[in-house]
Amino acid sequence: MILITGATGNLGQLVIKELLNNKAEFVAGVRNINKYNGHHCNLEYIDYDNLSVMKNAFKNIDTIIFISGNAETEHRIQQHRNLIDAAKQENIKHIIYLSFITVTDPHSKFSFTRQHIDTESYLKASGISHTIVRSCWYMENIKTEIINALDNQVFIDNSNTGKISFISRQDVAKGLAQIAINVNLQDRIYTFTGSAAYSMQNIVDLMNANCHKQIKYTLYSDNDYKKRLIDAKLPEFLAEAITLNRVDIDNGDYAFICQDVNFINKKLPLDISDYIFSICCTH
Ligand SMILES: NC(=O)c1ccc[n+]([C@@H]2O[C@H](COP(=O)([O-])OP(=O)(O)OC[C@H]3O[C@@H](n4cnc5c(N)ncnc54)[C@H](OP(=O)(O)O)[C@@H]3O)[C@@H](O)[C@H]2O)c1
After folding, report:
1. For residue range 142-180, what is the model confidence (pLDDT) as tens digits?
2. Any idea where the domains of the chain sit in the sequence?
3. Most buried one in 4, 25, 111, 283, CB count within 10 A?
4. Degrees (nearest 5) of the Cα angle 255, 259, 265?
C-alpha cells in the first residue's frame, strides 16, 4: 500500500491522478480531512509536525511518496526528520523523497537547499530503503510572470544569463507515481529536468517568436525584485529565498540536463516552449 503526503497540493493532486489512472492501491495523507476537495480517494490524517499522528497513518503502509513541505527552512528540516522517524518506527519499506536539483551545490544560496540536503542525509542515515527525485524548477513558477509580460510587454526577473531546464509538475508527478508502482525503478537517485535549458531572455525570445509579441526583458536588482514579490503577497521568507535563488541560476545550478524523467515516463518531458504557447493561446 502506498501513502502520498502533500496530497492537497498542486503536485500531490497530479500524483494522485496518476495513481488512480494506474489503479494503484494508495491512501492520500492530508492535514485537514474535512476540507479535502481533491480527487476522490481514501484519506489518512497526517501532519509533519506530529510524530504520533504520522505513526498512526503509516500502519499498513509499505511505500511513502514524500512530497517536501512548504514551511521555513529550519521548521521544514524538523518536520521532515519527524516523518522519517515515524516511518522508521513503523517499519516502512520504502520512501520516495521529492528533493531539489541544487543539493549538489554546497555553496547554494537558495535557503531550501540546506533543508533538502539535511533530509537526504537523514533519510540515508535512517537505513530505510529510499529513492530520491531531485526536481528542477517547475515551469509553472513563472506562469504569473508570463501572463504579466503578455499584458504589459515587459518580463521581469533578477537573473542574468543563467539557464534553467524547467520541468512541468505533471512530468514530476507521473515520474513519482511510476517509481512508487514499479519496484524495479526504486533505490536510486534521479534528477528530473526538461530536455533543454533556457535563460529568462530565452523565455522572452520564445514568447516573442511563438506569440507574436514584442516583450522586453527587464532585469531587476535583488532588492527591487524581493520588494516586488512581497508586494505580490509572498511571505518574506519565500520572497527572500526566491530572490537569492538568482545566484544559483546564474551559477548554472539549474542548467543541468538529465534524461531520467524520459527513462521513467517513457516520453519526452513537456518543453517550456509548448507551455508558453499554451498560455498564449488561452490568455
Ligand atoms: N521545484 C520547484 O520549482 C518547487 C517550487 C515550489 C515548491 N516546491 C516543493 O515542492 C512541493 C510540492 O509543490 P506544490 O506546488 O504541490 O506545493 P503546495 O501546493 O504548496 O503543496 C504543499 C503540500 O504540503 C502539505 N503540507 C504542508 N505542511 C504540512 C504539514 N505540516 N503536514 C502535512 N502536510 C503538509 C500541504 O498541505 P495543506 O493543504 O494542509 O497545506 C500541501 O498538500 C512543495 O511543498 C515544495 O517543497 C518545488
Report:
1. 999 999 999 999 999 999 999 999 999 999 999 999 999
2. 2-136+168-192+257-270
3. 4
4. 125
Going by the DSSP 8-state scheme, the letter that residue 5 receives in this structure is: S
Taking the whole predicted model, whether its pTM rises above 0.85 is answered as yes
Does the beta carbon of 68 sit less than 6 angstroms from any atom of ligand 1?
A: yes
**Residue holding cell 537569492?**
244
Q: Rounded CA gap, 226 and 240, in Å? A: 6
The verdict on the CB of residue 135 being under 6 Å from ligand 1 is: yes
Distances from the Cα of 15 to the Cαs of 22, 95, 126, 182, 245, in angstroms? 11, 15, 25, 14, 26
Burial of 161 (0-12, 13-18, 19+ CB in 10 A): exposed
Establish whether residue 8 lines the binding site of ligand 1, counting it when its CB lies within 6 angstroms of any ligand atom: yes
Going from the Cα of 6 to the center of ligand 1, the distance in angstroms, rounded, reads: 6
Sheet with 129-135: strands ordered across: 43-45, 26-30, 2-4, 63-66, 94-100, 129-135, 189-192
